[in-house]
Amino acid sequence: MQWYLEGLDVSYEFVLLDMQQGKHLQPDFLSINPIGKVPAIASRELTAKSYALRAGFANGL
């Protein structure tokens, strides 16, 4: 996902989660992706899983 965002010249913040400690299951992350999967992205226009993210950014989101 990182290379895709860089290829589209989209600014982003990379956040490393400690999945062994269950950080992907904490309420703050689950508010971004209720399924608790990574990668996930939050923006005003889009909150989705990686396969939908590529389509959204390719279309200018």
Describe the model.
The radius of gyration is 12 Å and the shape is elongated. It has a two-stranded antiparallel ribbon. The chain has 61 residues and is α+β, with helices and mostly antiparallel strands. Strand 1 (40-42) and strand 2 (47-49) form a beta hairpin. The protein has one domain (2-58): Glutaredoxin, CATH 3.40.30.10. Helix content is 31%, strand content 10%.
Structural class: alpha+beta
Question: Helix count, per DSSP?
Answer: 3
Distance between the termini: 15 Å
The total beta strand count reads: 2
Layout of strands and helices, then pairs:
Layout lengths: L1 H6 L19 H4 L9 E3 L4 E3 H9 L3
Antiparallel strand pairs: 1-2
Q: What does this entry show, briefly?
A:
31% of the residues lie in helices and 10% in strands. The chain has 61 residues and is an alpha+beta fold. Strands 1-2 form a two-stranded antiparallel ribbon.
Can you give keywords for this protein?
single chain; alpha+beta; 61 residues; 3 helices; Glutaredoxin; two-stranded antiparallel ribbon; 31% helix
